[in-house]
UniProtKB/TrEMBL annotation, chain A:
Cellular localization per UniProt: Cell membrane
The UniProt record lists the keyword Membrane: yes
CDD domains for this protein: TM_PBP1_LivH_like (cd06582)
Listed GO biological process terms: amino acid transport
Principal location: membrane
InterPro entries recorded: ABC_transp_permease, BCAA_transport_permease
Full protein name: Branched-chain amino acid transport system permease protein
Top-level taxonomy: Archaea, Methanobacteriati, Methanobacteriota, Stenosarchaea group, Halobacteria
Membrane topology listed for this record: Multi-pass membrane protein
Keyword rRNA-binding: no
Transmembrane segments: 12-33, 40-57, 63-85, 97-119, 131-162, 191-216, 222-246, 258-281
Cellular component terms (Gene Ontology): plasma membrane
TrEMBL record, chain B:
Full protein name: Amino acid/amide ABC transporter ATP-binding protein 1, HAAT family
Source organism of this protein record: Halopenitus persicus
Entry GO CC: plasma membrane
CDD domains noted in UniProt: ABC_Mj1267_LivG_branched
GO MF terms held by the record: ATP binding; ATP hydrolysis activity
């Protein structure tokens, strides 16, 4: 019999993890929604963010500098990826599959480049804080709460940019109709590159924020990528709202199932949920939230 | 009078098919011109060539005397050409007001705001300003498209079938709007299948067939033109 306290603890853990998962998954869904690219390199952006944070921390000793540097460098990496690798494919009749394959290639390239450069060993990343709170019988690590709050702030900022700024309006216009946006004097190519940068920066930010939990190594991005892939499939590719809901829901499900099963088995459960949802709602749950 | 748009000897081929074949077309400042022709005559391809969505294989397109052949659609729009589509394409998930914020205008925010308010009023979109564009009626969508194009204060507007899918009452309003915009000095090229719209609206009509400009004149003149009749009736 599972105690109420354990269940409550796991729900809280799940929600905290959901915030981090949302940070990764929203980037993945954003770049699909705007630029129609299913970015298999998203996990590699997460990994690069972790390494940039790791090196910046080594050089400056500042965690804040590490987080900011990860965001900026990975933004630039995303921007350049769009311009150099994705843009040349855009004039082709078939865009979806080639762009996906190119991003998969980029993921393997980056992973192997880091293996050659640094090796496969895990670099440990210091915790931001060791403080533990106990609230009504539930243990809360300040570290996790801090990461959750930073994730929410980053997502909140993204929301403000998209709903309240000129850039956000251009992003929303281009995501709906590329040709008409062009006729309005908006340059979709610029919007795609910036959106790719923002999406990558979110993954990079997650990479450094989660580095204390995951450590930093060249293949670290695949697990968060797979999780966020399940999240965006369930939430509906391109739907930010659906993705947020799915991230929270699936993280809680994962967390609760870990009471009874191993974390590998919990992953199997998540994939099973994804398959069931996709059979029932092929476009995910996002479309039903509009 | 200065020439706003000049299409000179433009040819566009798709594989073996010649969609536009040595087309010549000129529009003078402040003119309201109709472009008609049977299906497949190359009218929409011509609009795509003018607005930069397609590059001509031969020939040149000039705006206000400046060669824009091969320029991208956003560059063409900045040089003063606005276009609406046969099937209205407002940004459906944006509000009416936000739709009018999208055009990349060269003026400051205060002037942009003033322009939006003026157009909302002139085109009777005031009441639906906060509605999502996909909630509008077919006619309101056409009006919104027109307002959005006018935000750019173009020298020339290309209207692709403004009457398609619009009820006759609202069409009268839209025609009044088109006349008023034209009277303010904006040149307009209208593609339209509805001949009553063309005859009421346009002082000059250009007829295309098989990618060529086969006749140009007043509605009465082209109506009596033998080549035009052949084009529509398929010979004899």
């Amino acid at each position: 019999m599972v105690s109420v306290a354990l269940l409550a603890q796991q729900i809280v853990n799940g929600l905290l993890f959901g915030g981090q998962l949302a940070l990764i998954a929203v980037g993945l869904t954003l770049i699909w929604g705007v630029a129609r690219v299913l970015n298999f390199g998203h996990g590699a952006m997460f990994m690069v963010g972790g390494f940039v944070g790791f090196f910046t921390l080594g050089a400056t000793g500042s965690l804040v500098a590490a987080v900011i540097a990860a965001g900026i460098v990975v933004f630039a990496l995303g921007y350049v990826t769009e311009v150099v690798l994705i843009r040349p494919l855009r004039d082709r009749e078939e865009f979806g599959i080639p762009s996906m394959v190119v991003t998969l290639g980029l993921a393997f390239f980056l992973e192997n480049a880091f293996i050659v450069w640094i090796g496969t060993q895990r670099q440990s990343f210091p915790r931001f804080t060791d403080v533990i709170w106990n609230v009504a019988g539930i243990t809360l690590s300040a570290q996790r709460v801090l990461i959750f709050v930073i994730s929410l702030v980053a997502l909140g900022l993204l929301f403000v940019v998209i709903s309240r700024t000129e850039l956000g309006l251009a992003i929303r216009a281009v995501s709906q109709d590329h040709d008409t946006a062009l006729l309005m004097g908006v340059r979709p190519n610029r919007v795609y590159a910036i959106t790719f940068g923002i999406s990558a920066a979110l993954a990079g930010l997650a990479g450094v924020l989660l580095a204390p939990l995951f450590a930093v190594y060249p293949s670290v991005g695949w697990y968060p990528f797979l999780l966020s892939f399940v999240v965006v499939m369930v939430g509906g590719l391109g739907s930010v709202r659906g993705t947020l809901l799915a991230a929270m829901g699936l993280a809680v499900v994962r967390s609760i199932s870990i009471i009874w099963v191993s974390s590998q088995m919990a992953m199997v459960i998540l994939f099973a949920i994804m398959i069931v949802v996709l059979v029932a709602y092929p476009d995910g749950i996002g479309g039903y939230l509009e | 009078m200065t020439t706003v748009l000049s299409v000179d000897d433009v040819t566009k081929r798709f594989g073996g098919i010649v969609a536009v074949d040595g087309l010549d077309l000129a529009i003078e400042e402040g003119e309201l011109v109709g472009l008609i022709g049977p299906n497949g005559a190359g009218k929409t391809t011509t609009l795509n060539l003018i607005t930069g969505f397609l590059d001509p294989d031969e020939g040149t397109v000039s705006l206000n005397g400046e060669d824009v052949t091969g320029a991208s659609p956003d560059a063409v729009s900045k040089r003063g050409i606005g276009r609406t589509f046969q099937i209205s394409k407002p940004f459906g998930r944006l509000s009416v007001y936000e739709n009018l914020l999208v055009p990349n205008v060269s003026c400051g925010p205060a002037e942009q705001e003033a322009r939006i308010e003026r157009l909302l009023e002139e085109l009777q979109l005031e009441e639906v300003r906060e509605n999502r564009a996909d909630e509008l009626s077919g006619g309101q969508k056409k009006l919104l498209e027109l307002a959005r194009v006018l935000m750019l204060e173009p020298d020339l507007i290309l209207l692709d079938e403004p009457a398609a899918g619009v009820n006759p009452v609202l069409m009268d309003d839209i025609m009044d709007d088109i006349r008023r915009i034209n009277a303010n000095g904006t040149a307009i090229l209208v593609i339209e299948h509805d001949m009553s719209v063309i005859s009421e609206l346009c002082e000059r009509v250009v007829v295309m067939n098989a990618g060529r400009n086969i006749a140009s004149g007043t509605f009465e003149e082209i109506r009596d033109d033998e080549k035009v009749r052949e084009a529509y009736l398929g010979g004899t």
